[in-house]
Amino acid sequence: MCLTSNSFINNLEAKVASYEETASRSERATSSVDQHYQSPEGPQRSHEVTEPNPSDNTQELLEAVTAPTPADSSVQIELVEHLVPLTSFTAADGTEPVISSRSLSPEPRLMNPFALGASAYAPASRGDVPVYLGTSSNWAFGRRVLVMSHEQILGSMPGQESLFFQSEIYDLGWDGTRGPFASTPPMEPATLPTADHAIYLINAVKFHCGQMFHLFDEETFMRCFAIFHDPTVIDKSSLMPLWFVHYLLILAFGKAFLARGTRGRRPPGAELFVQAMQLLPDTTFLCVRPVQTIEILCCACLYLQSLDYRSPAYILIRQALGIALEHGMHTDMQSQHIPEHHVRRCRNIFWTVYILDRQLSSLMGLPTSIRDEDISAELPYDPLKSQKAMALDIQVKLSRVIAKIANNVYGPEGRLDVRYVANTKD
């Protein structure tokens, strides 16, 4: 999260206040001009005059509006351009036209050039589907600026091989196909770590992600972990059906966090991740266990996003959000049929999905899928006000700001509202 200095905030506030004061002064000045030209006691000009001299009141008005202020000079120039015609024109029929206050009010000229005209696409380096460049996507913005700079300096488009759009930096060694028609040969089952090493990897995930995201319920997860690694337990059918998939994803995360470097394009933990995704049931059967399914989808989403697989990560988190909404996790979940520990777990899950959905929607430049007005779920209750609770609260507030910027600051067709600076500051 970026921290803005107090001096920068104060400077923005001063500019906004000065701009509002200048606009208010322009409105008052306009009212004076209207009275000057419309009042019966006002000076009566001859229709034959083609080059009228400015009246004293109008001259004083121009001097007052164009006086030096802390506001940006472009605002002053804009006001002068609106007021100058009062002293330099005559109507076609020789009469003085009535000047309305609306015609003198400063209109915003802020435009977002990347949102004008038709939607923007970029040719894909592989496949036949062009890549959509979302307006509010910082990733798409960087690509478009790079292309514009390359065209301006060298007069040509940059080569597609130099533009990594997505899924091109790392190679998982699997294209997602299963069964006899798979285009890639089946991978060997990943070698699982020992119990002690696995605990070390799980703790690494808790340390790096546990403060911001809920990826697994520790009590339930570790109970299954103990059964899985207990040599005296021969029948492991009591394990939850999806637990092993979940376990592989957590181990893949742990390896990724602890790796000090990679050789080639194969990311750390890729073999564990691929094996987990190959064992993951179809969506039709995932809804039977929605709570653990959402946790698994969040794990897979984060891992893919860390490898620059943005589109698959976005699809997975939208799938997780759909399951969460279907089971009412966005509500207060106050019912005698729901145990308290289940409510706590669902709240942790929902806000993790909420944060990931907002961040990935912004990254992709796409609309958010749920409005804040439709959410009544509370943040997980923590009487100790722990660091984890504070971090979650900050992440949720930041996600709301992201949605507010996408929905309110940027106007349709690239037109920015006159309160753009104030909205951005808020």
From TrEMBL:
Keyword Repeat set for record: no
Region Disordered, annotated ranges: 19-57
GO biological-process terms attached to the record: DNA-templated transcription
Lineage top rank: taxon: Eukaryota
The UniProt record lists the keyword Nucleus: yes
Record field: compositional bias (Polar residues): 29-38
Keywords, sorted A to Z: Nucleus
GO molecular function: DNA binding; DNA-binding transcription factor activity; zinc ion binding
Entry-linked InterPro entries: AtrR-like, XnlR_reg_dom
Annotated ranges, domain Xylanolytic transcriptional activator regulatory: 313-386
PANTHER family: TRANSCRIPTION FACTOR DOMAIN-CONTAINING PROTEIN-RELATED, TRANSCRIPTION FACTOR PDR1
Protein name: Xylanolytic transcriptional activator regulatory domain-containing protein
Organism for this UniProt entry: Aureobasidium pullulans
Lineage: Eukaryota, Fungi, Dikarya, Ascomycota, Pezizomycotina
